[in-house]
Amino acid sequence: VQLQASGGGLVQAGGSLRLSCAASGSIGSIYDMGWYRQAAGKQREVVAFITAYGSTDYRDSVKGRFTVSRDYARNTVYLKMNSLKPEDTAVYFCKAVVQPIDGPRRDYWGQGTLVTVSS
Length: 119
Hints:
Number of helices: 0
Low-confidence stretches: none
Strand content: over 45%
Shape: elongated
Number of strands: 11
Largest sheet: 7 strands, mixed
Mean pLDDT: 97
Oligomer: single chain
Distance between the termini: 38 Å
């Protein structure tokens, strides 16, 4: 199972970006999918996640600005980020809880995509 993230880049404060993360490989079932971020010198933190049933949750600092969504047919999770702030600058990682066809259920991580918000 592999997760491939894309969509990061450089944007001015107030701008928008959309991140994508596609899961592929020997996938039996995918449960929660979500996004984390890690700013320079800081610990990784959860940003948003969406369950297999479509329930979502967000960290307080992004509520009302970020939207997580999911394409179940494409095994893909998205993060639409609006009204970006310099403090949103970080490497963003996607994570999926996956039951592979031939192994135990566990967490899988994407490679990270850099989001830089200039002031």
